[in-house]
Amino acid sequence: MKKTLFVIATVITAIQFSQAQPTQPQYQGKVGKTLEESKEWWGPVPKAPEGAPNVVLILLDDVGYGGASAFGGLINTPTLERLANNGLRYTNFHTTAICAPTRSALLTGRNSHFVHVGGFSHIRMSAGFPGWDGRLPSTSGTIAEILRDNGYNTFAVGKYGITPDEEATDAGPFDRWPTGKGFEHFFGFLGSATDQYKPDLVEDNAHVAPDGRHLNEQITDKAISYIERQKKNAPNKPFFLYYAPGATHSPHQVDKYWSDQYKGKFDEGWDVYREKVLANQKKLGVIPSYAQLPERNKRVKAWNSLAGEEQKLFTRFFEVYAGYLTYTDYQIGRLVNYLRENGLEENTLVYVIVGDNGASKEGTVDGVINPGFNDVATSDESEYLKNNLTLIDSIGTASAKTNYPLGWAQATNTPFKDWKQDAQSEGGTHNPLIVYHPKLIKEKGGIRNQYGHVIDILPTTLEVAGIDVPQYIRGIPQDTIQGTSLAYSVNDAKAKSKHTIQHYYIFGSRAIYKDGWKAGAAHSPDAIDFNFSKGNEPKKTRYEDDVWTLYNLNEDFNERVDLAKKHPEKLAELKRLFDEQAEKNRLYPLIDRYDVNNKLIHHPNGSNEQGPVQ
Fold this sequence. Notes:
This protein is of the alpha/beta class.
């Protein structure tokens, strides 16, 4: 009996071992004792499929749905408009509601908890659980790794955001730096945010000194130089460029040449801004014609109720933000113009994801200029405003750490309610996507309403390029890609959505989508405490006390009518589905801001003191 069990176990082990091994091409030459008796053979050299496109993936930071003019906003983005007018606008595309989870999901084609980035890769924001440790597993290879191994050159510039803090020194290890995840060259910063004039700058595997210019200019120069050098040496080899500026994340810093272009343009305030943008969005066709604005958030004052000095201060904040976004568009334009002038544009697939989450609420009710003073726990509102007014001329400069007030976040998130970090709401997760590929797209300026998510970009790219999803990457077996290719919709506006289920979770706030229905629950404490009074720190709340909402997005795209009481059976069904998706994707245990802020999360390799959520 023991012998039989041993044989069975041996067979099972052999089968498992054989299944776990990559399929390596067998040597097809002949090795004799002498050269005359031998026959040489060389293994295949990776080569991209004939006609495979270059790929440029552009990811902006902290831009809401109603910011850029390409989707009806009042901030000029002529480059994005040109790409959208000659490509496609995807109006029903989604992110995760915050930066690191979005980036991990985007690069791997898998949900963020599944690839271990439920929060951040920062020590303070990670935890010792499979979905929370902040370390991308080798079994979930990135789009850069796949394309590199299929004959592409691969470059990344700008914000990376998913390298663990304790590994982000010049001592490494480097396997979770961009160069360890498939990018042959990298120039940018590894963290969640950085100063635009004094960035924590990295080139390839070493920190380097910034040259004093704005970071957007530096990363654009570097991106162009990478492409130029490659094309001189291998003109027929395609490239993949991941272009992820720190813009428009705080600090909002930009030369006054750009911000002064908006002087007086927003004097009517954020309420009028929302109304104008809603009308623009209807004209463009990027929102339904029946759309109405959600009510003003209770934390945001009516613009006409503000004192004159408040309006002056708040307007300047937004003039700077608008200039920052327009300047970013200009730098993207330099890159696109380079492609056009060098005959590369026709066969380049360009994605522009206009924001890695909704507009940021992290600027507080009254805006931030100097975080050293703007500490909501130590200042009352009147003192806070008074000091900000004395610093108004420094807003947007290299000496300030600027972020706009909450009212402008709501405005640039038009037509949605809520904002960044609110995973239960479209305001946190619903971002514009532009797809541009002159050789592929037949309908220039088309609108696509199919449901999509950042995990869909990887499989879309592989399908367009004619590359199979790999079972192994350099000998390591790969998990299943979870995204759904959007290629089916590129030339078929009426195609039915194929991405039908998607879950969301950020610091307790959570949601589940299925076939147009969506259930979600906000969770306290909120990620940002807007009450300026001392001693008002948030307290731990129970997840079971969170109130779930239910929306039919097919008829109510921006979540205005809660149907939870009308359809309790649908809500119960979706809550069960959320639990199933959470189990499947390593989402548990639930972790919220209270756990993080009160140091209930401990890391053996370093301090929990890593600064605020970004």
